[in-house]
Amino acid sequence: MTSTPVRVGIAGLGLISRTHATAYLQMGGLVEIAAVCDANRAVAEAFAEEFGGRVADDIDALIADPDIDVIDVILPHFLHIDVATKVLDAGKHLLIEKPVAPNFDGALTIQRKAKEAGVHFMIAENSRYMAAYQAAHRLIEAGEIGDVLHVRTTLRSNEKAHLSDPDNWRCSYDLGGGLVLDTGAHSFYLITWLLGEIESLRGVGKKLLALPNEIEDTAEITGQLRSGAHFSCTFTSISEIPHSERLELYGTRGGILIDQMANPVVKLFRGAHDYEGTVIDEVPFGPDAWHPGGWHFESVLREVTDFITSLIDGVPPLIDNRDAVYALAAVDAAYRSIRTGEPVSMADITRQAL
């Protein structure tokens, strides 16, 4: 890249877009928010007034703008394949929010097209940039807990407002709704990055609240990794406690407990009689996820910053897009298991082939 600012066009101005825009502004002269676009023009105008940039008339105009280098796609899941294809056909660099597509086939389509286009491409999976999970990766790689035998994740949120609005896209499978898709993609990415690929899984999905939608509000996915380790992932979108995540890793020499609502967030235990454990001080406590200082907000800042700096430096970002695409294979397998009540093998899918 040249010394001129990277010019970004933001497509979709929902909740996460504000964090993306904050990251761009914090990078100063390296980045310029050139244009923004949303289906609601009033939203786009207010966003442009706050963060800068002109308002594009529609997605096609945003993509076609010759003064834009990067398109940042923060749209409902069902729009990802069509919009990403247009961005890549136009030769623009692409940052796209997870899940990259509503299904594995769509994720593969985008991944392969990005390779053909030769542009800078990253799936915005903020799990890779959470300080707690980076600490877990370092501890595992250092052999602090030995071989991991069992891993558990818990992701909880309260989406009752969205799930009570039948016009919201999150309420329909055809529009990319679904708890396992939206939330499970995080856990499947995280497990793959930390511990490797999945051998097989079994899923259960439940609709526990009679809200006007068709999707599951609670799910449990269990299975076996190719390493032989067991995994268990629990998701809910109807919790009445703060939005948060938890990761538990149990190995042959010790374990790691991570909870974004606990202070300290990360503790390392070396054996069954290590009652105090070791606090991992490098991970700050920021339980208010969506605001500055919060674990989610800060990870998205790091994610967006890494995308831009890696583009400028001409190097790959921290994210290996294959892990995020592979997560969609796990999502598809989980839904097949939920529908059939049977375990599903993933033995024929490898990250290297993606």
Automatic annotation (TrEMBL):
It comes from Microbacterium candidum. The keyword NAD applies. Residues 6-123 form the Gfo/Idh/MocA-like oxidoreductase N-terminal domain. The keyword NAD applies. InterPro entries: Gfo/Idh/MocA-like_OxRdtase_N (IPR000683), Gfo/Idh/MocA_oxidrdct_glycsds (IPR050463), GFO_IDH_MocA-like_dom (IPR055170), NAD(P)-bd_dom_sf (IPR036291). Residues 133-256 form the GFO/IDH/MocA-like oxidoreductase domain. Signal peptide: none annotated. Keywords: NAD, Oxidoreductase. It comes from the Bacteria. This is Gfo/Idh/MocA family oxidoreductase.
